[in-house]
Specification:
The structure is a homotetramer of 344-residue chains. The first copy, chain A, is of the alpha/beta class and 344 residues long. Chain A folds into two domains: 2-145 and 315-328, Rossmann fold; 149-311, 2-Layer Sandwich (Dihydrodipicolinate Reductase, domain 2), CATH 3.30.360.10. Chain A has helices at 12-22, 42-45, 60-66, 79-89, 105-112, 119-124, 130-137, 149-162, 192-195, 210-221, 254-265, 314-328; strands at 2-7, 27-33, 69-72, 92-95, 126-127, 142-144, 171-177, 200-201, 227-233, 240-247, 271-273, 291-298, 303-310. In chain A, β12 and β13 (303-310) form a beta hairpin. Chain A is globular. The two termini of chain A are 33 Å apart.
Chain lengths: 344, 344, 344, 344
C-alpha cells in the first residue's frame, strides 16, 4: 500500500485527490496538510467526506515524513522548496501547481514572475502528460502535473501535430471551463448570482497556461509553436471543453486525420475518440479521468476542428496526478481510475 | 460473482444501477433490457458509459434467463408478471417500481388504479428499507424497493416515531426533489428554460408516495398515521431534501430526541447524523448512498424539524436496491456502496 | 418628477431600486451613495447598467439633501439615524432594512440585539405591506419596508387568518429563497461550486424574519400568533416560494377558503390567485412585483396548504418599496411596476 | 398606436415579442395566432403573462386582417405565403424566420432545402440588421429579421471588416448560446438533467446560420467571405457570446482597430463598446436589446479577438424585430427598447 500525502488538501485539487485516492486499491491517504485549516478536520471543510475521511489537517513536514508520495496543490512559487525537501527525503513528489511545468526559466519568469530556485531540481522534473510523454515519466520522482487547459488543448490536436497534418501556425484554442478551476476561495466573479446565467471570456490571450500549451505542441512538432488561447468561464461546476482550430495542410484528407487519431489514441484507455457526427460533451466525463475527443472538418474553410472534453478536477488535476503516481510506482496506469461517469 | 440483470435499463434508475454495479466487486451486470432501445447499445443512449459498458439492450426474457438477480425499473403495473416469472425461475427480484410497495391492495387501487394480480406473490414480497426493516429482508427473494420520497421522509422522523417522542398526528413532509426523479422522458416541465431558475410544488397532498410514507410510519408506530406530503421540484439534477415537521410530546426534551436518533442510527453506515447547528444538504450526498440527517428544535412552537438529504437516484433508487441485493445474497451490506460523495 | 435617492445603492436591493426606478415615469434617481464604492460609478460595480446609469456614488448626506424620497438598503442598526435626519429635513424615508419593522422594542432587542434609539421616531413609522395594511400607509413619511420572507409568508395565509378559517396555532412557513437574498458579498455558502446542485435549510426556527411574520399574523388575527419558520436556500438567483401549512377549522370548506381569498385579493393588482390545480412557481414572477398564490387542500389531514411565489428582490424588496413610494406620494400604486415577467 | 400581430405567438420568439411589445408606448399587440394552441389563452401556455395578457390565440388570417404589422415566428418555409398575403393586404411584415434572410436562392436551397416561391417578393425584402444596414431598411415593408448568431457574430467584427483592418480569410466565429435558442419544444438535448452541468458544440461547421454570417461579412467587405462557424450550447436560458477571431493585417495597430469600432458604434445606442481589459458577458445584456462588445489583441499571434454578447431572444430575435418596426414606422429606433438589464 502506497502511503500518500497531500499538501494543500483543503483546496479543490487537494480535496479531489482525497476523494479519488479513497477508491484506490493500492494507495491510501496517510496525512494531509493545510495552512488555513491546520488542526481542523478535513470533513469540517468538506462535510461530504464525513465518516469516510475525518483526518485532521497537519503541517507540511508531517506529510513529507509520513508518506511515500507527496502531492502538492499549492499556489505557484511554493512547491520548489517542498520538492527539494521530498527529493532529499527520498519521497516521490507530484506537483499539481505550475512551478515545474515550464522547461524554460525565461518563460516561467515572463508568465509567473519568479525564478527557478534550484536549476538541478528542475532538470530532474518531468512533465506528466502520460498519453503524450509516457516514456519519459517512468522511473521519475518529481512530476510536474499539467494544468487543466493544458491537458485538454494539446490532447485535442496532438495526433494532427505529431503527424504533420495541420499547420502549426494560427492554432486557436477556444476553451470553456467550469468554476472549480478558479478554486475554493469565494470571489465576486464566482458569487452565485453573478456567475449563474452568465458566460464570458477572461484573461484573453494572456492566460498563464498559454506557454505551457505551446511548450507541449512545440515538443510534439519539433517547431516553435505559438497558439491563441482564450479561456471562458462556464456556469457549471466541472469540466473543460477545448475547441481547437487548425488549418489542414494541402492534400490531407479527413480520413487521414481520423486515422492518425485512431493510431495515436487506439490504446489509450482514458481517451475516448467519438464517432463521426458526435460532439464531445463535458457532461459525459464528469467525475472521471476520461478525455472525450470529437473531430470535425470545415471543408469550406479547410480547417480541422477538434473538441476535447475533460473533468478539469480529474483528468485536469487530481486524476492525472494519480495516473502519474501509478506510472512512477509501477502500477497499472488505470488503477483506481476506472470510473463510470454518471449519466446525469 | 452475482449475475445481475436490469429490466428497463435505459431509464434513469436502470442506468444508475449500471453505473453503481460497475464498481461492485461481487456482482456484475450480465444482461440489460429496454423496450424502447432493444438492439441498441446502452452507451448510445448514455455516451458517458462508452468503453466501460457497451452492452446491447436485449429483451426481458433474456435478462431473466441469464441472471441470478433481476432489477426492474418499470412503469407501475408491469412488474407483477415479471416478478412471477422470476419466482418460477428461482431468481431474486428487486422491483424499483411501485407494484409491491403497498401492503394494502385497497391503497394500491386507490392511488395507482390497479389490482394485485397474484395475492400470494404479494405475500412473498418484502419492503426493502434496510435501516428500518432489515431483519425482514434477509432471506427474501422478492424485494419492493422503496421510492425516493418514501426513503428520506421516514428516515428523517423514524427514531422519534419509534420511541413515541412526537405526535403521530399532523406530521408534515415538505420535500424538494431534483429533476431526475421525473425520469428520462422530455416534457415541458423539465424543458431546461422553463425549469431552470424556477421552483414550485406539484401534486400537493396527492402524490402517490403519500400512502407509502404512511404505511412505514404506521408500521413503526403501531398506529394508523396520516401525513401531509408536499413535493416540490428543484432545478438540480439529483437529490431530495425532506423537511419533516412533528409536534413534540409534552415533557420530551431535545436531548432525549437526539439520543433516540443516536441509538437508532449509531450503527447505520449509510445514515450520517449531523451535529447540532448543521443542516443536511443534498450537495453532500450526491452520487452516494448516504442519508444525511440534521435535527432542529422549534422551542417556541414545540416542534421537531428533521431534515434528511439523499441522492434520489442512489439511496432513493439504485443504491438502495443494491443494498437490498447485498442483504439477500448474504454480502456485507456496504459492498460496492462505500462511495465518497464529491465535495463539488 | 419625484427626486429619489438611494443610500446603499451598490447592494443588491439598492441596485434593484436603480433598475426599477429607471422605468418609473414619475420618479427619477437623482443621487446614490455607497460606503464601499464612494467616488466610483455604479456601472463599474454593475456593468449591466452601463450607458443607462453611470452615476457616481456619493455620500449619504448628499443623497438626503438632493432628494424628495430616500430609500435605504443598509445593515440593521444604521437606518435609525438616517431616518431621523430625513424627518428633520422633511424628506420621505423608505427603509428596506429591519430597523423599523418590529413594533416591539423587546422583540427587536431579542432578535437583532439593538434598541430603539428614538422611540418617537418609531412611533411615526408604518409597516409597508400595502395589500394588508394599505390604509395605514397613506400620508406617512417613514416606511418600514417588509422583508422578503415576511412579504410572501403572510400574503399566502392572510385571507384565511383574517376570516378565522384556520387555526392560528401550529402554522408552518416552509420557505425557499434564491441566492440574491443573501446579498452581494461573496461567501463560502454562495460560492458557485458549493451552492450549485445543492439545497439545504438554514437558521431553522431561528431566522430574524420570524417575529416579523408573527407580528403581521397577530395583527390580522387579533391573537398572539407563533409560527414555525424554516428558510431554505435555492440554487437560483431570484425568487421565494413560501409553502404555508395551517389547520382548517372544523366545518370550513375549501370553497369558503377560496372565496375568502378571492374577496381579499380580487382587486389587488399585484396578487395573482391561481386556479385550482395550478401551483405557484417563482419562475413566473421573476423581475416583477407580482405575488402568485395557489391554494391546496389536504382533505385527509384537514390542512390548508398555500403557496406564494414572489421575486425576493422586487415584491420582496425594491418593487414593494416603490409601491410604498407611490402610495405616500399619492400616485397610482402600480406606477412603474406594471412589468410582464419573462416567460423564460 | 401601431396595431401589432404575432403569428406563432406561443413559440419563444413570439412570446418574447408579446412581453416586449407590452412595454412599447406606440404599439400594441392586437392579435396573436398559434397553430398548436388556437382557441387557448396565451397565458395558459405562459402563466407568467397572466392578468397582463390573457389574449386567446386565433388563426393567422385574423392576425393579418387586424393588424398594421405582422411579426412571424415560424419554421422555415412557412413565411413566404404569409408575406405575400401581408403585402397584398398592405401590411408590414417582419419575419423572424429564415425565409427571406438569404439573398441567394442557391444558398437558400443548399442550406434550407427549399426554393424562393416568389422571386419578386424576395426582391422587396430587406435584411434588418440596423446597426450595419439601417439606411436600406427605412421605408421598407418586408423585413428579414436576422437570426441570433447572425446578429452578434457580424457585429463583433464589422468595424474591422469595413475598414479593411483584418484579413477576410480564416475568420472563426466560436459561438455559445443559451437554450432558448432551441425553442419551446422539449427534446432529449434540452431535458434538464442532460443539459445541466453539460456543454458541447453542435452542428460544427454545418449550421444554417453560416451562409447568413458570410452574406453580411461579404456585403461589408465587398469580397466573398467564408467563415468557420461553430455553435455550442450553454446551460443558461438566454444569451449568446460570439468569440470571433481574425488575423490583423500587417501594420495595423490595436489603437487603430479600437478607433474604428468607436467610430462605427459611437452613436449606436444598442452597442456598448467595453473598455480595455473588460470582457463582454451575456449576464449583462439579459432581457435587453444591447450588444456588448469587448476587444482583445493577441500580439504574439497577430490576431484580433472580439467578443460580442447579446440576449438571443431580444437583440437576437424579438427586440431587433421591434427595432426594425420602429424604423419602418418612422419612430425613434429605441422606442420601447430602453431597458436596464438586471444586474443579477
Amino acid at each position: 500500500m502506497i502511503k500518500a500525502g497531500i499538501v494543500g488538501a483543503t483546496g479543490y485539487a487537494g480535496a479531489e485527490l482525497v476523494r479519488l485516492l479513497y477508491a484506490h486499491p493500492e494507495a491510501e491517504v496517510r496525512a494531509v496538510s493545510s495552512v488555513s485549516f491546520e488542526g481542523q478536520k478535513l470533513s469540517d471543510v468538506y462535510p461530504a467526506y464525513s465518516s469516510l475521511n475525518d483526518m485532521v489537517c497537519e503541517n507540511q513536514n508531517t506529510v513529507v515524513e509520513t508518506c511515500d508520495v507527496v502531492f502538492a496543490a499549492l499556489p505557484h512559487g511554493l512547491s520548489q522548496e517542498l520538492a527539494a525537501q521530498c527529493m532529499v527525503a527520498g519521497k516521490a513528489f507530484i506537483d499539481l501547481g505550475a512551478d515545474f511545468r515550464l522547461e524554460s526559466e525565461d518563460a516561467y519568469t515572463e508568465w509567473y514572475g519568479g525564478t527557478f530556485l534550484d536549476k538541478e531540481l528542475h532538470a530532474q522534473s518531468v512533465y506528466g502528460l502520460p498519453e503524450l510523454f509516457r516514456d519519459t515519466i517512468k522511473g521519475k520522482k518529481l512530476i510536474a502535473n499539467p494544468g487543466c487547459y493544458t491537458t485538454c488543448s494539446p490532447l485535442a490536436i496532438a495526433p494532427a501535430i505529431i503527424n504533420g497534418l495541420v499547420s502549426t501556425k494560427g492554432i486557436i484554442c477556444d476553451c470553456k471551463s467550469g468554476v472549480t478551476g478558479a478554486g475554493r476561495k469565494p470571489a465576486q466573479g464566482s458569487h452565485f448570482p453573478e456567475l449563474n446565467e452568465g458566460f464570458h471570456a477572461y484573461k484573453v490571450a494572456s492566460h498563464r497556461h498559454t506557454p505551457e500549451i505551446e511548450q507541449t505542441l512545440s515538443r510534439l512538432s519539433g517547431e516553435r509553436v505559438t497558439v491563441t488561447f482564450v479561456p471562458h468561464l462556464l456556469p457549471v461546476n466541472r469540466g473543460i471543453l477545448a475547441t481547437v482550430y487548425a488549418d489542414i495542410k494541402d492534400g490531407v484528407t479527413f480520413e487521414k486525420i481520423r486515422e492518425a487519431y485512431e493510431v495515436c489514441y487506439g490504446d489509450e484507455f482514458f481517451v475516448r475518440l467519438l464517432g463521426d457526427g458526435k460532439c464531445a460533451d463535458i457532461h459525459n466525463v464528469r467525475y472521471s479521468n476520461f478525455c472525450d475527443i470529437s473531430l470535425h472538418f470545415d471543408k469550406r474553410a479547410g480547417k480541422l476542428i477538434a473538441c476535447a472534453a475533460i473533468d478539469n478536477m480529474v483528468k485536469g488535476a487530481a486524476g492525472q496526478a494519480i495516473q502519474n503516481m501509478n506510472i512512477i510506482f509501477g502500477l497499472d496506469e488505470k488503477t483506481g481510475l476506472v470510473i463510470v461517469p454518471p449519466a446525469f
